[in-house]
Amino acid sequence: MPQPRFARFAIALPLYRVFEYALPEGDPAIPGTRYRVPFTNGIRTAVLLDASADSEFDRTRIKPIQACLDSQPVLDAHMLSLARWMSDYYLQPLGDVVFQCLPGYLRGARQYSSTQVKCWTLTTTDTAAIDKLRRRSPRQYEICQALLERQAGLTAAELMKINPNWHPVVKSLENKQLLRWQWMDRRPDLPDAPEVPQLSPEQSVILDDLEPRLGNFSVHLLDGITGSGKTEIYLRLIQTRLDAGKQVIYLVPEIGLTNQLIQRVEQRFGARFEISHSGLTETRRFHAWDRFRRGEASIMLGTRSSLFSQCDDLGLIIIDEEHDHSYRQEDGIRYHARDVAIKRAQMLDIPIVLGSATPSLESIRNCGRDTYYRYLIDRRPTRFPPPRLELIDVRNSRFEFGCSARTFARIEQHLAASGQVLIYLNRRGFAPIVMCHECGWQALCQHCDARLTLHQSVHSLLCHHCGYSQGVPENCPECGHDEVKHYGIGTEQLEQGLAQRYPEVPIVRIDRDVIASREALKSRLQQLQSGAPCILIGTQMIAKGHDYPAITLSVILDADQALFSASYRASERLVQTLFQVSGRAGRGDRRGEAILQTRFTEHPMMQALLRQNYREIADGLLRERRSFGFPPFARVIMFRADAVELKAALQKLEDVRALLANAKRFDALICVGPIPALMTRRIGRYRAQLCLISQDYRVLRSVLKQAMPAIEELPGSARVSWSIDVDAYDL
Ligand code: ADP
Ligand code: ZN
Ligand code: ZN
């Protein structure tokens, strides 16, 4: 085979092209390896994609690479194919996508040295030599015995557990040449006999159906109410896969709130799993990535980007709470981790299990397809059924910090019965509206088309979009009137009000303002674990798959705004949140209740909620989407642009539209825009959008395929930035 002399590289740049460099003689040119290459005025890290003996460019103008960074590729062939697929499907620059697939630690010029551990092992299996130690050197004997039991060797930390003063003992044994140390991959043993609950009949039936299908690509949707035992099913499936020598990726929306999950996985699988989420340092995440890659850890439990963990023998992907919005990355590379995971499973011919109490409409719809299976679970394995939801009609009610008198009565009833109460209010701060009664002035952000929220604890008006903050004016800045008022309720005000009303009840508030760190969150959650009566107030943060066993009442204060939202997704999200929040109650050994304050008790959505049937609501929403021709019955591709002036952003999208309009069959698409985005100004920039919709995905694809080369060539400018969003979440 002729020597590879030229190679194409991916560089982390938002440019739709790859870059060619010359390789030194003898370079093995393995795809997925990182190099340092000269680029404009500096040096960049680049990932080798492919190499050839010749180049179609002017060979004299191709620069040589500067250095090779890795002795082995950091991305395997499968991950490179996945990156190519993502780049193609999501219309994102390949360079950006390739770097997205790497752990942050390896995106720069850091060397990839693996994280093997130092392990001591016996040099002999001659038990007679060891027995000799028994009397004269009991401490040495003790360590040798432990090593006889554990052939894989012991790390310093493990030796420490046997003997805190292990070092001199091990030294003597080394001198006697009974022990030696080496760098080793360690695959920890499974715990001896973890406590495994007896499966409920529902769980057994599902596992019996599912397990024979694990051999090949197949998508399994566990559609089961909160607390129906889905996690237990995942754990069983993981066990089956581990027994077959496979590895498993287990994605969850959020880890900070899932300490219990970590405990459950640890209790079942000991040290055989790694955790990765954005709360960890780059180095820790890299170690997790590396241990999983080398097969030392069998399970990768993590959030969205853990999907890009590599290993030799992936045998299952699990996506818990598959409907959760956090699986979609909305900045940088836009992709949906669930959809990429399904593609990955298909490429590897392995199964993928999605689970949710409120599956996305996309997944429900997909269940009609080949190789998709849906399993319904409508009962909890524990004693109590899920809580019934009750609507509280607040049309003529008087409110005190957002709660009606009936709501208070319920809260008091549950507290008196030693229950914990959860109050969901998805609005942080003290009050969302600050205005002057005299002239109608409102506190607005200078940089966004948004109101400022009053945060009383820090005496400021804050913008939740750009972080802008200013002091609270004493007089109206417009007319000078001496009273500026605030309206609406945020979690801060709710907490204050409840603390005054129930001074003896502990109140735990969970939102982004009070939870600065995972540690802070952990300590707050510990208060709940104790099981003593308390009130938990929280935003969206608390709705994510979490088990608060002592909560007996869930209260949803304000759901009405979402009923009339401009977003076609709003009702799906609202229903999912309501089911998730109400499902938090009564998971322990007491029956739970859920109440919802609304002015629209007759609204069809509220009525359907009362019947407690997510599937009925989802089917209704799907019918609605079908009749409007919205996703999942159509595909949406959104072009977005932003600039310091609205005109420039709109102009950019006009240019894009003109190129699209040249393509054959453009007329078969629905094209909306360019128009200003719903929130036109954000963080000081004006935003515009251009939306393509089609029921026929092939037409959409074909138009884009024709137009993309020209769109990619559109002259860039520092003033306007733009992006493409395939399968845009909202319009
Ligand atoms: P989900 O993931 O559907 O919310 P979990 O698997 O977390 O449900 O189960 C809910 C609760 O029921 C947990 O406390 C769990 O320990 C318990 N549980 C699950 N399966 C069983 C079972 N087969 N027997 C007894 N308890 C179970
Ligand atoms: Zn005024
Ligand atoms: Zn702002």
Give a short synopsis of this structure.
The protein is an alpha/beta fold. It is built from 22 helices and 31 strands.
Distinct small molecules bound, one entry per kind = adenosine-5'-diphosphate, zinc ion
- Roughly what is the average pLDDT, rounded to an integer? 88
Shape: globular
Number of contiguous helices:
22
The CATH topology of the largest domain is Rossmann fold
Q: What is the makeup of the main sheet?
A: 7 strands, parallel
Strands of the widest sheet, in order across it, are 10-11-9-12-15-8-16
- Class from secondary-structure proportions: alpha/beta
The appropriate CATH architecture of the largest domain is 3-Layer(aba) Sandwich
Percent helix: 25-40%
Residue ranges: pLDDT <50 for 5 or more in a row? none
Q: What is the CATH C-level name of the largest domain? A: Alpha Beta
Q: Could you describe the 3D structure shown?
A:
This protein has 731 residues and is α/β, with parallel strands linked by helices. It has six domains: 6-106, GIY-YIG endonuclease (3-Layer(aba) Sandwich), CATH 3.40.1440; 117-184; 201-377, P-loop containing nucleotide triphosphate hydrolases (Rossmann fold), CATH 3.40.50.300; 389-429 and 490-627, Rossmann fold (3-Layer(aba) Sandwich), CATH 3.40.50; 433-487, no CATH class; 635-726, 2-Layer Sandwich (Alpha-Beta Plaits), CATH 3.30.70. The chain has 22 helices and 31 strands. It has a seven-stranded parallel sheet with strand order 10-11-9-12-15-8-16, sandwiched between helices. α16 links the parallel β24 and β25 (535-538). The model has no long low-confidence stretch (mean pLDDT 88). One zinc ion binds at residues 436, 438-439, 441, 476, 478-479, 481.
